[in-house]
Design brief:
The protein has helices spanning 13-23, 29-35, 40-47, 51-58, 69-83. With 93 residues, it is mainly α. It has a domain at 25-84. The longest helix is centred in the last third of the chain and has 15 residues, at 69-83. The two termini are 25 Å apart.
Length: 93
């Protein structure tokens, strides 16, 4: 018996809306930290950046940097996944 690859799935309206919800619910670092207690190292993992980058978010003066839009997207995704009441089966991804 031959195993044929599955055809690409078509996203549902609900799945497409979920992406829009994340895009329009970008969180600031302060908002994320008010919801979740995470270390700087964990923030770096969530945002796919270095610990030095995260440390710059907390620095003062010339070293201070705000999280970039792609970092805020990762924060929004983490918040959405962690807040979800539905268990996500990552084996299907």
């Amino acid at each position: 018996m031959m195993n044929y690859p599955q055809p690409p799935r078509i996203p549902t309206r609900h799945q497409l809306q979920a992406i829009s919800d994340i895009r329009f619910s970008l969180l600031t670092l302060e908002e994320f930290e008010s919801r979740w207690s995470v270390s700087r190292r964990q923030l770096a993992q969530i945002c796919h950046c270095s610990l030095a980058t995260v440390n710059n978010w907390y620095a003062s003066g010339d070293c201070h940097r705000e999280p970039a839009i792609h970092h805020r997207i990762w924060l929004a995704i983490a918040d959405k996944v962690w807040s979800s009441k539905k268990v996500i089966d990552y084996t299907d991804l």
